[in-house]
Design a protein that fits this description.
Bound molecules: pyridoxal-5'-phosphate
Helix content: 25-40%
Radius of gyration: 24 Å
CATH topology of the largest domain: TIM Barrel
CATH architecture of the largest domain: Alpha-Beta Barrel
Shape: elongated
Number of strands: 20
Largest sheet: 11 strands, mixed
CATH superfamily of the largest domain: Alanine racemase
Structural class: alpha/beta
Number of helices: 12
Length: about 375
C-alpha cells in the first residue's frame, strides 16, 4: 500500500515523516463502506458528509477521494469548508448545512455552493442578492420536523413552499429535514418526524406541483433503521467512516473504521513509589514501575478526560494511561514489561498483532461519543493515506 501525505497538513513533506504521532486513513476501507451503503440503498444517491474535517479524516483529501469515486453530492457544515473544497479544485456539488448570514451570500454564489434556506425571510434575502448580482443561487429548503435547530417548522411549511414558487434567481433543487434521534432503538420519534416530512411533501401534491428533485432526510441512523426516510438521497456521516452512530442502533449495513491513530515511545523511565506522575499528582505507584512518555496530548485532541482512564497498545499489550494527559505529552504505565524508544503505540485502531482500541472505547473512557473523538483529532496530527 502506498503512503500519501496529507496535502493540507501543517506538516508537509518530510515533517509528516518525522512526527511520531499520526493518523492513518485506509482509503480502500472508505470505498468499501461507501459501496456497502450504496448497495443497501439501491438507486438512491449518497451524499458524502465532509464537515468537521471529514469527521477528522481530512476535508480536502477525503473530498478528492470521494470525487474520484464519483459521489454525486457533498455536504459541509460551514461556508468556509465549502470554499476550502472549491479552492482545492473539487467540482462536485456541495450543500452547506449551516445557518446563513447576509454577508455570506456573495461567497456562496462565487464558489457555487448550495445554500440551505431555513425560512421565508432568508430565501427572500438570497433571492434579492442573487438578483442584484445577476446570478442564480442553488438552494435546498430545510424544514424542522422535530430537531428544533434550523428550518421552518413543519406546521408552517406551506409558507416557505409558497415563497419558493415566487423566486426567479434561485433554483430550488432540494428539500430536507434532519432526525433528532434516529440512532436509538426506539424509532417512534423518528417515525413521527418522517410523517411530518411526508405531510410536507403532501403540500406539493395538494398544490399540483412536483417537489424539488432532491428530497433527503436520512443521516446514519436513518440509513440503518428507517428505509422510508431514504427518498432521493441519504446523508450518512459517521457510517461512511465505518463507525455506527450509537451502541443501540440496528447494524443493518456492514462497515468498518478506516482511521487509526498512533504515536511512538519517546522516553522510558522507572518511577519509584512516592513519586506521583504528571500535573496535579493524581497517580502514584506503591512499587517501582516502568513508565513511557508519548508525544501526544489534549492539544492534539487526545482528551484530558482520558487521564487515568484510557489504554494504549504497545507490543501487542494494553497498558493504562497514568496521571493527567498534558497538552503535548502522555504517560503510560507498562508495569514490568519492556518497551523501547521508537516503539509504535496505538491510541486508536488495530495494532499489528490484531488487538484493537475502538473509537467507542475512547469515547467511553472520555465520557463522550465517537463523533467527538473523531472530530477532535487536531490539525497538529498529520494524516497519512493508504490506498
Ligand atoms: C444535516 C445533517 N445531515 C447529516 C448528518 C450526518 O449525521 P451522521 O453522522 O449521524 O450520519 C449531519 C451531522 O450531524 C447533519 O447535521
Amino acid at each position: 500500500m502506498a503512503l500519501k501525505k496529507s496535502a493540507d497538513s501543517r506538516f508537509r513533506g518530510e515533517e509528516s515523516d518525522i512526527r511520531p504521532t499520526r493518523v492513518t486513513i485506509d482509503l480502500k476501507q472508505l470505498a468499501e463502506n461507501y459501496a456497502s451503503i450504496q448497495h443497501a440503498i439501491g438507486n438512491r444517491k449518497v451524499m458524502a458528509v465532509l464537515k468537521a474535517n471529514a469527521y477528522g479524516h481530512g476535508l480536502v483529501e477525503i473530498g478528492q477521494f470521494f470525487e474520484s469515486l464519483s459521489l454525486p453530492y457533498f455536504s459541509v457544515a460551514y461556508l468556509e469548508e465549502g470554499i476550502q473544497l472549491r479552492k482545492a479544485g473539487i467540482k462536485t456539488p456541495i450543500l452547506v448545512f449551516g445557518g446563513l448570514v447576509k454577508e455570506q451570500i456573495d461567497a456562496y454564489l462565487e464558489y457555487d455552493l448550495t445554500i440551505t434556506a431555513p425560512s421565508v425571510e432568508k430565501l427572500e434575502m438570497i433571492e434579492a442578492r442573487a438578483k442584484e448580482l445577476g446570478k442564480t443561487a442553488t438552494v435546498h429548503l430545510i424544514f424542522d420536523t422535530g430537531m428544533e435547530r434550523l428550518g421552518v417548522h413543519y406546521y408552517n411549511a406551506r409558507d416557505l413552499i409558497e415563497a419558493s414558487f415566487k423566486v426567479e434567481h434561485c433554483v430550488i433543487e432540494g428539500i430536507y429535514t434532519h432526525f433528532a434521534n434516529a440512532d436509538t432503538a426506539d424509532t417512534s420519534y423518528s417515525r413521527e418526524q418522517l410523517e411530518r416530512f411526508k405531510n410536507i411533501l403532501g403540500i406539493y401534491e395538494e398544490l399540483g406541483v412536483s417537489r424539488p428533485p432532491l428530497c433527503h432526510m436520512a443521516n446514519s441512523g436513518g440509513v440503518l433503521q428507517i428505509e422510508e426516510s431514504w427518498f432521493d438521497m441519504v446523508r450518512p456521516g459517521i457510517l461512511m467512516y465505518g463507525v455506527y452512530p450509537s451502541a443501540e442502533v440496528n447494524r443493518t449495513i456492514p462497515v468498518k473504521p478506516a482511521l487509526s491513530w498512533t504515536s511512538k515511545v519517546v522516553y522510558f523511565k522507572v518511577v519509584q513509589p512516592g513519586h506521583p506522575v504528571s500535573y496535579g499528582s493524581t497517580w502514584e505507584s506503591d512499587e517501582p514501575v516502568r513508565v513511557v512518555t508519548l508525544p501526544v496530548g489534549y492539544g492534539d485532541g487526545y482528551f484530558r478526560s482520558l487521564s487515568n482512564k484510557a489504554q494504549v497498545l504497545i507490543r501487542g499489550q494494553a497498558f493504562p494511561v497514568i496521571g493527567r494527559v498534558c497538552m503535548d505529552q502522555t504517560m503510560v504505565n507498562i508495569s514490568d514489561q519492556s518497551a523501547f524508544n521508537g516503539d509504535e503505540v496505538t491510541l486508536l485502531g488495530a495494532d499489528e498483532f490484531g488487538n484493537q482500541l475502538t473509537v467507542e472505547d475512547l469515547a467511553a473512557w472520555a465520557n463522550t461519543i465517537p463523533y467527538e473523538v473523531l472530530t477532535s483529532i487536531g490539525n497538529r496530527v498529520p494524516r497519512v493515506y493508504l490506498d
